[in-house]
Amino acid sequence: MSVQILKNKELTLTINSLGAELTGITDHTANREYLWNGNPAFWKRRSPVLFPIVGSLKNQSYRYNGKVYTLPQHGFARDLEFKLLRYTDSEIWYRLDRTEETRKVYPFEFALEAGYRLTDRRITVMWKVINLGTDDMFFSIGGHPAFLCALKEDRQQSDYYIAFDKNAPVHYLLVNEKGLAVKKPFEEQAVLHTDNGFLKIDPRLFDRDALIIENDQFHRVSLADSEKKPYVTVEFDAPLFGLWSPAGKNAPFICIEPWYGRCDSSDFNGSFEEKEWGNHLKAGKQFETAYTIDIA
Q1: pLDDT per position as a tens digit, 123-176
Q2: What Cα–Cα distance (Å) separates residue 219 from each residue in 25, 208, 245, 288?
């Protein structure tokens, strides 16, 4: 395990080779941190990379080619050591290759590369999933960055807002006690109503765990202060995302999570290649995507 730094005149990023996890976003001109510190009393992680699944599997297992495999919630990448590939003043890349241990739980020949680029006050988080095998490959991938909220010590989280890029109702799914999506048709999903795209944070918003927001409803989500000024913005092309803070803990952070994939539905009985929102990669091909974090 090693720690690397990206720094410019505005921000300092700290990245850990364990999980290729972003662990700090510091505005060193204002001496202010924006990323959660990983205090295990609330949540021990900060911004893990979720791969090769996002969320939980039904019965913690999946079927593929007539065999049953077991994976923990969010997969294994967040707990494995990545190799440092490239490191410049403004960009860094890590790589995770398949091993005999990963083949026992995920029978695909893969490489996962994760990169970070720092440009002024923008962080670009980049992923490459590479199919090194001769068979089709199936996977999900997602981000899970946790941002401080409230940002200032004299404010409560309930003084703040979540801001969306459209003035539209937010349709969402919830998860059950096993971490599985309680699936409903779009028109029957629970709804949050915004005021010109701003949602005042209710202390009970996450009482039933994560909110799953599907179907390309939004592609830019911010946390905004009590004056509705965004201080951190996550922009993505992912078709779905999650909003989360630990239920019942009054935790001082909120996660904005771009996802290419999600947990199984409670009524899902398909095989791995039939996973909802999953991704299909042909032999020898690679999947590339990115999302950005802008600090105001």
Answers
A1: 999 999 999 999 999 999 999 999 999 988 878 999 999 999 999 999 999 999
A2: 22, 24, 20, 17
Task: Say if CB 205 and CB 223 are below 8 A apart.
Answer: no
Closest of 245, 254, 243, 241 to residue 289, by C-alpha: 241
Q: Cβ contacts of residue 89 below 8 Å, gap of 6+?
A: 6, 8
Closest by CA to 164, choosing from 191, 196, 212, is: 196
CA 45, 47, 48, 50 torsion-angle sign: positive
Q: Which pLDDT score, from 0 to 100, does residue 146 have?
A: 98
Contact 27, 11 (CB under 8 A): yes
Question: Which sign does the torsion angle of CA 73, 13, 205, 184 carry?
Answer: negative
Percent of the chain with pLDDT over 70: 100
How high is the pLDDT of residue 155? 85
Indicate the SS3 state at residue 66.
coil
Give residue for tokens 């010109």: 196
Residue 88's Cβ-count burial label (10 Å; 0-12, 13-18, 19+) is exposed
Put residue 188 in one of left, alpha, beta given phi > 0 → left and psi -120 to 50 → alpha.
Answer: alpha
**Which residues contact residue 172 at a Cβ distance below 8 angstroms, ignoring those fewer than 6 apart?**
189, 190, 191, 192, 211, 212, 213, 243
Coil/strand/helix, residue 60: helix
d(CA 60, CA 68): 10
Tokens of 187: 């028109």
DSSP 263: P
Largest CA distance in the chain: 57
- Kindly give the residue spans of alpha helices, DSSP state H, lying in the chain: 100-105
Residues of the chain predicted below pLDDT 70 = none
Are 110 and 139 in contact, with CB atoms under 8 Å apart?
yes
Residue 249 tokens, joined: 């803990």
Residue with tokens 């992680």: 45
